[in-house]
Fold:
Amino acid sequence: MNARRVCTVVAAAVAMLCAGAWAVAQNADAPAAAASAAGPAAAPSTTASPAPASSDPVLERGRYLARAGDCVSCHTAPGKPAFAGGLPMKTPFGTIVSTNITPDPQAGIGAYTEADFARALREGVARDGHHLYPAMPYPSFARVNDEDMHALFTFFRNGVQPVAQKPPATDLPWPFSMRGLMIGWNWIYLDKGVYQPDTARSAEWNRGAYLVQGLGHCGDCHTPRSMLGGVKASSNAKGDLFLSGALIDGWYAQPLRHTGRPTMAQWPAQDIVQYLQTGRTSHTAAFGAMVDVVQNSTQHLSTQDLQAVATYLQSLGAESGKPGVPSPASLVAAAPQHPSALALRNGTVEANSGAMVYLNNCNACHRSDGTGANKTFPALAGNSVVNAKDPTSLIRLVLAGSAMPSTAQAPSAIAMPDFGWRLSDADVASVLSFARSSWGNQGEAVTAAQVAKVRDSIKPVATAAASAQQQK
Structure:
């Protein structure tokens, strides 16, 4: 690399230091985080519906792929037409407003040629030449092959109702408004070229890799990022940080690969498929932004494609001959005889403040053995969220609650209530520390300071929700 090029990249990098980090996380210029498989973030699911089914197989293929990319979640404002944009998202650097991607020639992308469309999805460059922020996960979409790109273009051109509604433009303060800085960012993080199958792997494995790395863009939430906001590994070939978990938008997106703790990669394939189809299994449930992902995206994918996703995820980080961590299923099976379960059942927990909080607030649903109730109350024993290195999501669930997705196969949106109003920071810390060390779980203790930090971060959200409720 010559000195001039290094200086160019460094100059762009300095200005992008903060811009890159928030932009990717906010998912505003394009589809929201999609077929990732066990994670977080929080936004109400859109109720807008695309246009009716067509007899054109290419168009229908494009509709299917648009669902795989979960395009509707970010490009639809509540109560507004599908894909018409206008969804505002506040960030520390200003408010980003999602764009209209309907085929209206003025307000949307109706004037785009197929080449323009492909360039936007693969290179992050709009028809008029301006650069998109990496909130649009074009580094992942760059892997989409030509056949699927054509089907997507056909769907957005002919399968979506045009809407002559131009959302307010995203207007960020300087220097974040300088989209040209994305040239340097792209030089560092954008790997051009469609997905190339691994000939040493099965067709099913390659299909799963194509979906996860490409339209599913799971790595955009579940992979840690550098100081410039680029993912530290865009595929398993780039390193073990790929899908190793990351803190994003106030939640911890769970690892989707084998690690030193229980993760989804240990689940039986049928559990992964069921989770992505319904948002719940016999031992866990989707929460936060995964509610959107399941409702708007993964429930619509074929069982064959979800099986391929499962096959791919199960392979990541797996090492033959190396002792693995106990599986979630084995911890659930052993939980009824664990000392913690026996103590709760016998009422001999007076000296344990966390156990007392659990007994008074959690025991009725999650049971004394932490096994919960099948597809209703998630098991805590062996749960990847409970055992996660970062307890942010667990803390947020206790403070603010969450609801399961409502899907065709499981329409009941069962919710966990919020306990932030009745439990102090010390109470939440003690009960979570108890849960993370009981029934075979091996999570670290949670501190009151960690709880206070999460509580402060969600106060504006809670205040806004309360104000909206009062205005009804």
In short: The longest helix spans residues 3-26.
